[in-house]
């Protein structure tokens, strides 16, 4: 048996086509969505991700606003850029690329963002809205994963889902989304304190591997036919992506997200969705 591919690249392309029409419609109402990015430092990986986000924007007609600061930027300098984007009417949504350099208080920067311009859905106000079930921008990777599963007809309702990891961008918000009535999954969250990870994995209909540990998920721990999402992006000595999922899992799983080409493109597409939806919300209230 070989797993069917959860094709993030193709699904993201379809989402972008749909967004292109919505952006064109907003423009007829005099609104041009604009995505801002704040990049601090010169990490090649981060530069590449941010460049990809601006390429996506160009494809769907969203304006791009780029702010770059040196690796030695101070807390005050970063906060000044955040205040500037909060006030900039052309910037309808933005992200602060994480992680920020050591010594910078990341949470203080995130809390300073205008929650209505938070394209990542990571502002405390929006994480709170998610808990309360109020409309909010949804965290990009978790919601991208749900759309990827839906698009391929993988049943989420009633499924036993194991999320591995508890990071702020994926592991922590993922169970919040999956346990909403609209998804109705039963979720187990595993992390480094989990006593017997394999025992949990073997029961899972859906595994979401977001631990950042290369090849953590082994074929012998996956239930035959399960859907496995590989969210990890570690790199080997040649800079090649190594996921959290061992390649042998493809012989056991029913569905598998390739990496690259799976969750990454969905994350980027969902960021655009958040920008367009924020612009649509402001169009409705203006
Ligand atoms: N505030 C913030 N928001 C983020 O969303 C955020 C962040 N900070 N910091 C870093 C991580 C990482 N991330 C990725 C997005 C897309 C791909 C992606 O599209 N990857 C391609 C391949 C890229 C390659 O080959 O290197 C793929 O999976 O096919 C990867 C990683 C977003 N992040």
From TrEMBL:
Residues 139-282 form the Tetrahydrofolate dehydrogenase/cyclohydrolase NAD(P)-binding domain. It catalyses: (6R)-5,10-methylene-5,6,7,8-tetrahydrofolate + NADP(+) = (6R)-5,10-methenyltetrahydrofolate + NADPH; (6R)-5,10-methenyltetrahydrofolate + H2O = (6R)-10-formyltetrahydrofolate + H(+). GO terms for biological process: L-histidine biosynthetic process; methionine biosynthetic process; purine nucleotide biosynthetic process; tetrahydrofolate interconversion. Pathway: One-carbon metabolism; tetrahydrofolate interconversion. InterPro entries: Aminoacid_DH-like_N_sf (IPR046346), NAD(P)-bd_dom_sf (IPR036291), THF_DH/CycHdrlase (IPR000672), THF_DH/CycHdrlase_cat_dom (IPR020630), THF_DH/CycHdrlase_NAD-bd_dom (IPR020631). The keyword Hydrolase applies. Residues 6-120 form the Tetrahydrofolate dehydrogenase/cyclohydrolase catalytic domain. GO terms for cellular component: cytosol. This is Bifunctional protein FolD. The lineage of its organism: Bacteria, Bacillati, Actinomycetota, Actinomycetes, Kitasatosporales.
């Amino acid at each position: 048996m070989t797993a069917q591919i959860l094709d993030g690249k193709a699904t993201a392309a379809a989402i972008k086509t749909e967004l292109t029409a919505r952006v064109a419609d907003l423009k007829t109402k005099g609104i041009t969505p604009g995505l801002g990015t704040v990049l601090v430092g010169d990490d090649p990986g981060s530069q590449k991700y941010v460049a990809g986000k601006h390429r996506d924007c160009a494809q769907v007609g969203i304006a791009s606003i780029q702010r770059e600061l040196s690796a030695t930027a101070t807390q005050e300098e970063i906060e000044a850029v955040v205040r500037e984007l909060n006030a900039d009417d052309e910037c309808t949504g933005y992200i602060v690329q994480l992680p920020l350099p050591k010594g910078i208080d990341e949470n203080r920067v995130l809390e300073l963002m205008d929650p209505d311009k938070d394209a990542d859905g990571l502002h405390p106000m929006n994480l709170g809205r998610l808990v309360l079930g109020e409309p909010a921008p949804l965290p990009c990777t978790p919601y991208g994963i749900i759309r990827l599963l839906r698009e391929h007809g993988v049943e989420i309702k009633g499924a036993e889902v194991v999320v591995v990891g508890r990071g702020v961008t994926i592991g922590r918000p993922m169970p919040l989304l999956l346990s909403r009535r609209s998804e109705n999954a039963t979720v187990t969250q595993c992390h480094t304190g989990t006593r017997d990870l394999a025992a949990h994995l073997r029961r899972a209909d859906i595994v979401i591997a977001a631990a950042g540990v290369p090849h953590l998920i082994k074929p012998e721990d996956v239930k035959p036919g399960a859907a496995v999402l590989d969210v990890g992006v570690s790199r080997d000595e040649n800079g090649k992506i190594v996921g959290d999922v061992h390649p042998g899992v493809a012989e056991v799983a029913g569905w598998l997200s390739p990496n690259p080409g799976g969750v990454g493109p969905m994350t980027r597409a969902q960021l655009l969705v958040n920008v367009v939806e924020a612009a649509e919300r402001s169009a409705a209230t203006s």
